[in-house]
Amino acid sequence: MIARTTDFQPWVLRLLVWTGVIGLTAVVTLVSVVASVQVALVVVGLIVALILFSRTRIIVLAVLLVPTLSLVRRIAAGPSGYTASDPLILLPTLLVIVVVALSLTRPSTNDRGSVLRTLAVFTALGVATTVVLRGAFNVDGLFFASLVIVPMLLAVVLSSGRMPPVWDAVRRVLPGVAVFAGTYGIYQFVALPEWDRAWMRTSQLTSIGQALPFQVRVFAASESPGPFALFLGLVLTVCLAAAVTEAKGNRRLGWTALSAFLAYPLLLTGVRSALLGVAVSAVVLTLLRARGFSRVVIVAFLVGAYYLLTAVVARFGSNSTILTADRYTEFSADDDSLVARLALLQGIGNPFAHLVGNPNGGGADNLYVDTLLRYGLVPAAALLMFAIGITVVAIRNLARKMAETASLSIVFIMTMSLFGPTFNSLFGVLAGVVFGTVMAASNTGTTMQTTRRGKLAETMTTVSTR
Q1: CB atoms < 10 A from the CB of 217, how many?
Q2: pLDDT value, residue 279
């Protein structure tokens, strides 16, 4: 046996650790004095990323910040509530930019699936070109453009093999952070904390109710109900997929129970499109992958979710102005959300009138219309074709039993994209991971299929020569 050696003595390692801790404390203290607490927290996040020294761990850190960063922002802001130019919101995007930049220096190990990668690159370049042509170099223009560009580039480097797969590491942390966010959402509905009230008042979140307990659509640790429902719905979809495709016995019941728990705070958000996205994903899962008892599990979940919805409405509908039966069952001319979506057709008009777009213009409750209005026809068309292509790939992956949890997540994301600009929040970081994972799995499946065909042809040739 050869003893394991190290280049440093134990006392040297302890000295290095304590030097790092003291140095980090000094840097944070200095930044806090010179700048704000928010800037100091950004510095801490970047230093933590440097300490992690792993692209996979940095992506996991960025994903952890997606549903929780807004709570940190609210607590750091205190009574002042919403801050328009809060540097903390840049932290997840900065982390992903570092990972993408490092990955682009590595060689590509997978040249297949180039069509989807090309569409992703066209989308990113189209958005960047519009920003340059319009001179939209203000904070909002650059920030919202980065929310589209960075996830697309992350998908490209993941699918091309320039960085290691990260989905398994990301998926392991999703249930835990979803339980935290969901539990906080329930607490928020029952006893709205003061920092959340200040956030609602200063950010003018008037459409989600009053800043009172039982009178608000919950947004938990996110900035609003929409991004929170996006994250929670995706994790719920992943849990359902795991219950059907990976688990058996008690583990299957555990994943189903977790899905049922997450359904409760999802209902409290009042985001109907998220409920629809989960239902569509469950139906697709039933048709393509569920067999035997697993079909019963999905049907039981859908029936249970319906009864949970009726229970929530019955319990809070009489006292709440938000969670009423009308919100989930009636669609009329008085429904602001429905009216906004019907107005999309009128807002589009002639698509060729939006060749360039306006990055600082108003958005729309549809990902592709929003991209058309903000960034023009070319990136919107590229994004639409990318969405159609990756949906087809995800369905094919589910049928072939490849990357099933990520592929079902695509069904949820694409359903949600019809009802809102899914990239106009930090959720794009998680979406980029899902896109890249599904594209890479499709590439692997194609390579394996080609290899099998090659071996079969070689065998047939050998037999014929004999």
Answers
A1: 23
A2: 92
Domain-located, residue 342: no
Is the confidence at residue 461, as pLDDT, over 60? no
Same domain, 154 and 87: no
Q: Under DSSP, is residue 209 helix (H, G, I), strand (E, B) or coil?
A: strand
Sequence-distant (6+) residues with CB within 8 A of 331 are: 338
Q: What is the pTM of this model?
A: 0.84
Do residues 353 and 416 both lie within one domain? yes
At 360, give phi and psi (nearest 5°): -100, 10
45: tokens are 């996040």
CA distance 11 to 9: 6
Q: Among the listed ranges 120-124, 238-242, 249-253, which one has the minimum average pLDDT value? A: 249-253
Q: How far is CA 222 from the centre of its chain?
A: 12
In a domain? residue 26: no
- Is 93 in contact with 257 (CB distance < 8 Å)? no
Q: How far apart are CA 162 and CA 438, in angstroms?
A: 15
What is the C-alpha to C-alpha distance for residues 27 and 29, in angstroms, rounded to an integer?
5
The two three-digit tokens of residue 198, written as one number: 């200040």
> Cβ(113)–Cβ(121) under 8 Å?
no
Distance CA 139, CA 133 (A): 16
Q: Enter the DSSP assignment of 87.
A: G
Q: Provide the token pair at 215.
A: 């009178």
Flag whether pLDDT at 16 surpasses 90.
Answer: no
Q: What is the largest CA-CA distance in the chain?
A: 84
